[in-house]
TrEMBL record:
InterPro entries in UniProt: CaCA, CalX-like_sf, Calx_beta, Na_Ca_Ex, Na_Ca_Ex_C-exten, NaCa_Exmemb, NCX_ion-bd_dom_sf
Protein name per its UniProtKB record: Solute carrier family 8 member 4a
Source organism: Oryzias latipes
Presence of the UniProt keyword Oxidoreductase in the record: no
Transmembrane residue ranges: 54-72, 147-167, 179-202, 208-227, 745-764, 822-842, 854-873, 893-912
Lineage, top ranks: Eukaryota, Metazoa, Chordata, Craniata, Vertebrata
C-alpha cells in the first residue's frame, strides 16, 4: 500500500495499516503536480529562478483571486435574486375584510445561512472538495487549512475593521441576538467537533457516520437558527423586551436581561432602558398590536417604506429647491437604497464591483430609475380617432339673467378632414325652466362648411317680474352627419405628402362624424328680482395639499339685484391653522348682477405620503349694501337701502350649504412618484441583470467606484484607481458576461453556471497556491492560512466594511461571520470527507486522517473565538460602547488592536507549530 506524506503538520494521511504517521517537521514540503497544473520543472532551481517563479506564481494568484471575486459577484447576484422572490398571500383583517400583500418566500435567517453563506464561501468550500477528489480521495492540507484560516481572518480581522470604521459617536447593535448566539455556538462547536472525530471517537481516521453527521450538522444549524428567529419551541418563553422598530413601524420583541416593564421602551439608536416615551404612548401602541391594527406586518412595512420615501423626497426638496424632479427622484432613490437593510449578498456584490471599477451600483440604479419615473410620470389619455369629426358645445355651461333677452350658444368642430361639409341638429329641452314661460323653444340644423370650426345660434329668454328660483334648461345636439366630402385634389398642399401612402389612406378611409364629449349644453337662468341666496356648491370638498391657493366658489342664486357683502371665516378641525392652512376671514362683496365669487385659502404643502385633515369655511349672514337696478333702468332708481325696500325686493339670505368642510389630502402626483419609486427600490433589481447585452456593456464600461453618500447629484468621473482595476479585470468581466443573466429562470441559470466556473477557478487557484508555497519553502498549511484565506476573504472584508457603515444594525457585518464559519466546516469539510469516507468504505478500507496538531489549532481558535464573542457582548453595555460596533474612540481602538493581535498570535503560533518550534498537544 503506498504511503502518502502530506504537506501539512496539522493533517496527514496514511493507508499503511492503522498506525498514524508522524508529523512532518521538515522546513518545506515535497513538490508534486496539482489537480490541474503540473509542477514547474526542473525542480530545485537556482535562487534567481526561484525568485522569478515565486513572482510569477504570486502574480497569477492575485489575478485568479480577482477572477474569483468577479464570478463570485455574479454568483451572489443570482442568490440575491433567488432569495428576493415574492409571493402574494391573502390576509384577513380583524373586521372581516380580506386584502392581498406580497411576502418573501425565503426567510432572512435561512437564506443567510444557506445560499448567502454558500455564495460568500464558495471558493473555500469548493477548494476542499476539489482537493480531496483530485488527490485520489485522500485528505489534503489546503482545503481544511484554508477554511480554518478563513474563519480566523473573518472572526478577528473583519470584525476588528467593522468595529473601527463606524462613524464617530455612532454604534451598531445586533438585531437578531438569538440567531447570533445560535450561529456563534455552532461555529465554535464545529471546530471542537473536528477534534472529537479525529482524536477521541476514532483516532486517526474518519468513519462514514462521522463524516455524514458533520454534513448533517449544517441543516441542523439552519433549523435551530430558524427556530430562534421565529421564536418557536422554548424560545417563546425567553424573557423579552418590547421596543419600537422604526423601520417597520410596529412593536417587536427582543431578549432582555430583566422582565419587561411598560416604561422600559428601547428605541433603536438609543441606549437600552431609555425612558423617552410616556406610559400612555406605549399603551396605545401595544393596544394596536393586540387588536391586529387592521394590518399585517408585511403591509405595515410597505406603508412605512412609502412614508420614508415621502419624507425623504420632502427633505431633499427643501434642501435643494433648485433641483429638477429627475434629480430629486435620483437622490431620493439613492438615499432610500442606502438606508434600506441589505443582505450579505448585496454588500459582497457592492464591494466587488467598486473594487474592480464597475461603479457604485446604487447610484447607477438610482439614476436609471429616476429617468424612467420622470419619463412615464404623465398618464396617457385616451386617443381620439383621427378619421372622425367631433361636434360638441364649447363651452357646455351657460348662465344669464332672465332680463338678458337672448343667449348665444357655441358649437365647435375638431378632428378628421377639414374639407368636409358637416351637419348637426340641435333642440332645446325643459329642465326646471319651461319653454314658453321661461325661454323660447328652439330647434334647427347647423351646417359646418369646409374649413369652418365654430357655429353659433340664439335662444330667447323670457323676463317677468315674479320672484322665482333659478331655473335651467338643456340644449341637445343630435344626428351628426357628413353631407359633402371634398376630393383629395382640393386638399390643402400642406396636408399632402410626397408619399403615396398618405393619399391612399386619405382616399380609402371614409371620414365619420360623431358627437364629442359635451353633446348637451346646460343653460341656467338667474332671477333678477331678489337680492339672492348665498351658498357653497356642496357641503364638502377635497383638495390636494400641493394646490397652493385653494379657490372656493360662493354662488348667488335666486336673484342678483343689489350690492351684498357676505362675511366668512375658517374654523380649525384636525387641520391646524398655520400648519396645514392659513387662517382667513373677511367679506366677499357681490356687485349688482354678480352671481359668483371666489374665496381664497392658502394650503400649506408639507408633502406627506398620506394625509386626511379637515377644516371648515363658514359663511355668515349676508349684508345688503345697496339696492341694485334692473337692466334698462336709470341710475336715478338706485337708492340707499331702507326697511321698506328690503321687504319689497327680498333680503339676501344664506342657502343650503353655509359650511364647507375641506379635506386636505396628499398630493396625487407626489404619492404616484413615491409609489413608483418604492417598486424600484428592490435590491434584486439593483444587482440583477436582464440581458446579455446589458452584461457586456457593463463589462467594458468603467465607472466611478466611490461609496460616498454625496447629495450634489453630480456624476463623478472614474478615478485613476478605477481605470487601473478596470483594465486589470476587463478579461474576467468580459468572460463572465457570458454567464446567463439573473432574470433567466429566476436566477437559477446564473446560479448553476457561476458555481461551476467558481469550481474551475478554485482548482487552478489551489494548484497555484500549493506551487507558490513549495517554491518559496512554505508548507501548504501555512500558505493556506495566510495567503489563500486572505485572498478569498478580501471581498468579504470590503463587504462587511460597507455594511458596518451603511446598515443600522450589526447583523450583516458580524452575525454573518459566525454563521459563515460554521457553514464552512459543515459544508467544506463535511462534504469533502463524506465523499472520501464513502469512497474508501466501498473499497473496504478506512479513510485515515492523522489529526497531528489539530487539537492545538482547535483549542487555540476556540479560546480566541470565545474571547472575541465575550468582548463583543461586553461592548453592548451602554456604559462601554452601547453596541458591538462603533462607540467612543478609545473603546474602538482598544477593541481593534485586541482583535488584530489575536489574529497575529494565531498565525504566529499555528506557523511555529507547523514547523515544530512549538509543541502541539
Amino acid at each position: 500500500v503506498p504511503h502518502l506524506k502530506l504537506r501539512s503538520s496539522a493533517i496527514s494521511v496514511t493507508h499503511e495499516g492503522n498506525s498514524s504517521a508522524p508529523s512532518n517537521c521538515s522546513s518545506e514540503d515535497n513538490c508534486s503536480d496539482g489537480v490541474v497544473l503540473p509542477m514547474w520543472n526542473p525542480q530545485n532551481p537556482a535562487v534567481g529562478d526561484k525568485v522569478a517563479r515565486a513572482i510569477v506564481y504570486f502574480a497569477a494568484l492575485i489575478y485568479m483571486f480577482l477572477g474569483m471575486s468577479i464570478i463570485a459577484d455574479r454568483f451572489m447576484s443570482s442568490i440575491e435574486v433567488i432569495t428576493s422572490q415574492e409571493k402574494e398571500i391573502t390576509i384577513k383583517k380583524p373586521n372581516g375584510e380580506t386584502t392581498t400583500t406580497t411576502v418573501r418566500i425565503w426567510n432572512e435567517t435561512v437564506s443567510n445561512l444557506t445560499l448567502m453563506a454558500l455564495g460568500s464561501s464558495a471558493p473555500e468550500i469548493l477548494l476542499s472538495v476539489i482537493e480531496v477528489v483530485g488527490h485520489n480521495f485522500e485528505a489534503g492540507a489546503l482545503g481544511p487549512s484554508t477554511i480554518v484560516g478563513s474563519a480566523a481572518f473573518n472572526m478577528f480581522i473583519i470584525i476588528a475593521i467593522c468595529v473601527y470604521v463606524v462613524p464617530e459617536s455612532e454604534t451598531r447593535k445586533i438585531k437578531h441576538l438569538r440567531v447570533f448566539f445560535v450561529t456563534a455556538a455552532w461555529s465554535i462547536f464545529a471546530y471542537i467537533w473536528l477534534y472529537l472525530i479525529l482524536s477521541v471517537f476514532s483516532p486517526g481516521e474518519v468513519e462514514v457516520w462521522e463524516a455524514v453527521l458533520t454534513f448533517l450538522f449544517f441543516p441542523l444549524c439552519v433549523v435551530q437558527a430558524w427556530i430562534a428567529d421565529r421564536r418557536l419551541l422554548f424560545y417563546k418563553y425567553v424573557n423579552k423586551r418590547y421596543r419600537a422598530d422604526k423601520t417597520r413601524g410596529i412593536i417587536i420583541e427582543s431578549e432582555g436581561d430583566a422582565m419587561f416593564t411598560k416604561m422600559d421602551l428601547e428605541m433603536d439608536g438609543e441606549g437600552a432602558n431609555s425612558h423617552v416615551h410616556p406610559k400612555e404612548a406605549l399603551d396605545g401602541m401595544l393596544e394596536g398590536v393586540e387588536e391586529g391594527g387592521g394590518m399585517s406586518p408585511e403591509q405595515d412595512q410597505e406603508e412605512e417604506a412609502r412614508r420614508d420615501m415621502a419624507r425623504t423626497l420632502k427633505e431633499l426638496k427643501q434642501k435643494h429647491p433648485e433641483k429638477d424632479m429627475e434629480q430629486l427622484i435620483e437622490m431620493a432613490n439613492y438615499q432610500v437604497l442606502v438606508q434600506q437593510q441589505k443582505s450579505r449578498a448585496f454588500y459582497r456584490i457592492q464591494a466587488t464591483r467598486m473594487m474592480i471599477g464597475a461603479g457604485n451600483i446604487l447610484k447607477k440604479h438610482a439614476a436609471d430609475q429616476a429617468r424612467k419615473v420622470v419619463s412615464c410620470h404623465e398618464a396617457s389619455g385616451q386617443e381620439e380617432d383621427p378619421n372622425t369629426i367631433y361636434l360638441q358645445f364649447d363651452p357646455s355651461h351657460y348662465q344669464c339673467f332672465e332680463n338678458c333677452g337672448s343667449l348665444k350658444l357655441s358649437v365647435s368642430r375638431h378632428g378628421g378632414e377639414s374639407g368636409c361639409t358637416v351637419k348637426v341638429d340641435y333642440r332645446t329641452e325643459d329642465g326646471t325652466a319651461n319653454a314658453g314661460s321661461d325661454y323660447e323653444f328652439a330647434e334647427g340644423t347647423l351646417v359646418f362648411k369646409p374649413g369652418e370650426t365654430t357655429k353659433e345660434f340664439t335662444v330667447g329668454v323670457i323676463d317677468d317680474d315674479i320672484f322665482e328660483e333659478d331655473e335651467h334648461f338643456y340644449v341637445r345636439l343630435s344626428n351628426p352627419r357628413i353631407v359633402h366630402r371634398a376630393e383629395v385634389s382640393i386638399l390643402e398642399p400642406s396636408s399632402i405628402t410626397s408619399s403615396n401612402s398618405m393619399v391612399g389612406i386619405s382616399s380609402h378611409i371614409p371620414p365619420k362624424a360623431a358627437l364629442g364629449k359635451d353633446p348637451v349644453a346646460t343653460v341656467t337662468i338667474y332671477d333678477d328680482d331678489h337680492a339672492g341666496i348665498f351658498t357653497f356648491e356642496s357641503k364638502s370638498m377635497r383638495v390636494s395639499e400641493s394646490v397652493g391657493n385653494m379657490q372656493v366658489k360662493v354662488h348667488r342664486t335666486s336673484g342678483a339685484r343689489g350690492k351684498v357683502a357676505v362675511p366668512y371665516h375658517t374654523v380649525e378641525g384636525t387641520a391646524k391653522a398655520g400648519e396645514d392652512y392659513e387662517d382667513v376671514s373677511g367679506k366677499l362683496e357681490f356687485q349688482n348682477d354678480e352671481t359668483m365669487k371666489l374665496l381664497n385659502v392658502k394650503i400649506i404643502d408639507d408633502e406627506e405620503y398620506e394625509k386626511n385633515k379637515i377644516f371648515t369655511v363658514v359663511l355668515e349672514e349676508p349684508i345688503l349694501l345697496e339696492v341694485g337696478q334692473r337692466h334698462g333702468d336709470t341710475n336715478d332708481n338706485k337708492t340707499a337701502v331702507g326697511p321698506e325696500d328690503m321687504s319689497k325686493m327680498g333680503c339676501p339670505i344664506l342657502g343650503e350649504h353655509t359650511k364647507l368642510e375641506v379635506v386636505i389630502e396628499e398630493s396625487y402626483e407626489f404619492k404616484s412618484t413615491v409609489d413608483k419609486l418604492i417598486k424600484k427600490t428592490n435590491l434584486a433589481l439593483v444587482v440583477g441583470s436582464s440581458s446579455w447585452r446589458e452584461q457586456f456593456v457593463s463589462a467594458v464600461t468603467v465607472s466611478a467606484g466611490d461609496d460616498d453618500e454625496e447629495e450634489s447629484g453630480e456624476e463623478r468621473l472614474p478615478s485613476c484607481f478605477d481605470y487601473i482595476m478596470h483594465f486589470l479585470t476587463v478579461f474576467w468581466k468580459v468572460l463572465f458576461a457570458f454567464v446567463p443573466p439573473t432574470e433567466y429562470w429566476n436566477g437559477w441559470a446564473c446560479f448553476f453556471v457561476s458555481i461551476s466556473l467558481i469550481g474551475a477557478l478554485t482548482a487552478v487557484t489551489g494548484d497555484l497556491a500549493s506551487h507558490f508555497g513549495c517554491t518559496v519553502g512554505l508548507k501548504d498549511s501555512v500558505t493556506a492560512v495566510v495567503f489563500v484565506a486572505l485572498g478569498t476573504s478580501i471581498p468579504d472584508t470590503f463587504a462587511s466594511k460597507v455594511a458596518a457603515i451603511q446598515d443600522q444594525y450589526a447583523d450583516a457585518s458580524i452575525g454573518n461571520v459566525t454563521g459563515s464559519n460554521a457553514v464552512n466546516v459543515f459544508l467544506g469539510i463535511g462534504v469533502a470527507w463524506t465523499i472520501a469516507a464513502i469512497y474508501w468504505h466501498t473499497k473496504g478500507k478506512a479513510f485515515k486522517v492523522n489529526p497531528g496538531s489539530l487539537a492545538f489549532s482547535v483549542t487555540l481558535f476556540t479560546i480566541m473565538a470565545l474571547v472575541c464573542v465575550m468582548v463583543l457582548l461586553y461592548r453592548r453595555r451602554s456604559s462601554v460602547s452601547g453596541g458591538e460596533l462603533g462607540g467612543p474612540r478609545t473603546a474602538k481602538l482598544l477593541t481593534f488592536f485586541l482583535f488584530l493581535s489575536l489574529w497575529f498570535i494565531y498565525i504566529l503560533l499555528a506557523s511555529l507549530e507547523a514547523y515544530c518550534h512549538v509543541p502541539g498537544f
